[in-house]
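Session log. Operator J.P. requested a structure for one protein chain; no other inputs attached. Running the standard single-chain path with token output.
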Amino acid sequence: MRAGVGILGLLVALVVVGLLAKKQLGGVSGTASASQVGVSAPLGTPRQQSQQLQNQVKKSVEEAMQQKRPESPDQ
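Structure written below.
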């Protein structure tokens, strides 16, 4: 009897986790696509795509380095 209740509890927990996972994965497909957010998908060969990605990262890092850091309250 005790084993049956334990197995039943595990099955209920598995169903709950499965439903939560399904809900989370369903939410991912409903999000805006990259083109709608303003991010363009790289075009061309894989080598060109890699070069574009490297340039984007380099530009982002350079922009971040140019930003002034906020002063900490300790100083």
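Operator note: Residues 2-26+42-66 form one domain.
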